[in-house]
Amino acid sequence: MIPAGPLLQVQDLSVQFSVQGARGGQLRAVDGVSFEIAAGKTLGVVGESGCGKSTLARALLRLVPIAGGRLSFDAVDYTSADERTLRPMRRAMRMVFQDPMSSIDPRFTVAQAVREPLDIFERQLSRAERNREVGAALERVGLGASFARRYPHELSGGQNQRVSIARALIGGPRLLICDESVSALDVSIQAQILNLLTDLQRDTGIALVFISHDLSVVRHISHRLLVLYLGRVMEYGDAATIFRAPRHPYTRSLLDAVPIADPARAREKAAAVQSLAGDLPSPLDPPSGCVFRTRCPRATPQCKVAQPRLQDSDRDSQFACHHPLDP
Length: 327
What we know:
35% helix
């Protein structure tokens, strides 16, 4: 039975880097982000490149320094935990990266790559027991035992990503963070990986944080949605609600950018929507007030001087906008 209540809680998380030329000498890569995720559920994190998605992923695993806020896993605060405390938590929280070829040692066979977490966290198991676990993990992701002795260069991109997922899942983690884990794959392989993750979640109750710039992919897999722009939350809440009727203009722009296969509908949509204007501002010198105001068609002088705070919608969602869209 999947336990009730949040598995991961993030409150007002901030990540800063000292950068020469940045405003105040600090680049705020993640700026006051809050959310929670329950076991057996998926949080989709979306936004353009440079919006802080990957930094957020690494902060959840304490792989980058945290400037402020609170991280809690299974009701245990690990914001400032030492390495001894973090070790069992990192066993329970794993990550799948965008490029499997850069995250798998090319000198390792598939079996060695998948077995590595067991070699670190499950030293009490015998070699035979670890090898049985490896075989089961490969079967779980749709690869047979025949792949165990192969090397990464002998596999396709989709097969290597399955190896990465098998390695991340071995040992039974409770949270899996997928950082653009299907963006380098073609559409048919993307669908296979997404279906694999959905099936694994149903079978194991694992929680997923699924990061992508592609809303059509996120829509397929997410229960809740977090929309980031320059490190700040623009909209957060029930994914179906936000996809159906977003309140923030940035979310609307991202949805409008999703391509449609039907040419006639695509032409109708192109005539009806307003494209996202301009380029993403530099995170070294973000706009004052609302960081989205320089590209927002609804911006007013108020947006320049006052940073909008997250406010509750009349549905299960929140948005940070002075002039939200009608529901």
